Amino acid sequence: MTAVDAPTTGEDAPAGAVQRRRWTRSPLLAAAAVAVVTGLVWAFAHPAPSLWWLVFGVVPGWLTVAHLAREQRARTVAALGFLLGMTAFLPMLRWLAEPATPVAWVLLAATQASWVALATVAVRPWTGTRAVAVVGPLIWTGMEVLRARAPLTGFGWGDLATAHTDASWMLTTARVLGADGLTLLTGLLGALVWV
Fold first, then answer.
1. What is the maximal distance between C-alpha atoms in the chain?
2. How far is the C-alpha of 115 from the C-alpha of 35, rounded, in Å?
3. How far apart are CA 81 and CA 31, in angstroms?
4. How far apart are CA 59 and CA 3, in angstroms?
5. In sequence order, what are the residues at sequence separation of 6 or more whose Cβ sits closer than 8 angstroms to the Cβ of residue 147?
6. How far apart are CA 16 and CA 3, in angstroms?
7. What is the rounded distance in angstroms from the CA atom of residue 174 to the CA atom of residue 182?
8. pLDDT tens figures, 35-85
9. How high is the pLDDT of residue 8?
């Protein structure tokens, strides 16, 4: 019987089993906390309150979530990505709750958060390599491109590029790079800090 399979209470628990279980849970709890903080950072970077400079912390936070959960099952990693997405999209889409319904608001947020969940699973194998500085922002940008086109065509709400308001020094690059290019550049700058 291994420490993972061993009972954690009672006299039958081998020495150290309880301690090992706590140790294996702490990265998961840390990943969940980072997911919530990153989701809030992402939400606060967008209009009201429009703290655009926070957008540079979104990709590093997302990579940290994937890295902390790298030993977990894909389902757990997806759940953490979903948590990050819901934490971001529920506040970003709060304007939809009244004209539509709260159910539509939550369903739309969940649809958008599902893309973040898939991207988190996709980036997880790369988090232990230096290539993540390029691959991570590419996966993020790909996720935003797909999210803006499926299943709701034209709903790219909350992408990293739209956080850059008039005060952003990077906004002028959108003329050359477009919104997706600006998202990629923002992600690359953030990922350089992470590596």
1. 68
2. 15
3. 10
4. 34
5. 112, 115, 155, 156, 159
6. 8
7. 6
8. 999 999 999 999 888 899 999 999 999 999 999 999 999 999 999 999 999
9. 47
Phi, psi of 112 (to 5 degrees): -70, -40
Its pTM stands at: 0.85
Question: Which amino acid is located at 97 in the chain?
Answer: A
| C-alpha span between 154 and 182 (Å, rounded) | 18
What backbone phi and psi angles, to 5 degrees, belong to 80? Answer: -65, -40
Alpha helices (runs of H) in the chain, residue ranges in sequence order? 17-45, 58-68, 74-92, 102-123, 132-147, 174-194
What is the spatial distance between Cα 97 and Cα 75, in angstroms, rounded to a whole number? 29
For 107-166, write each residue's pLDDT tens digit. 999 999 999 999 999 999 999 999 999 999 999 999 999 999 888 776 788 999 989 887
Cα–Cα distance measured from residue 148 to residue 121, given in angstroms and rounded to the nearest whole number: 19
How many whole angstroms separate alpha carbon 30 and alpha carbon 69? Answer: 9
Q: How far apart are CA 144 and CA 30, in angstroms?
A: 25
CA distance 111 to 184: 22
**Residue from 39, 40, 80, 42 nearest 163 by CA:** 42
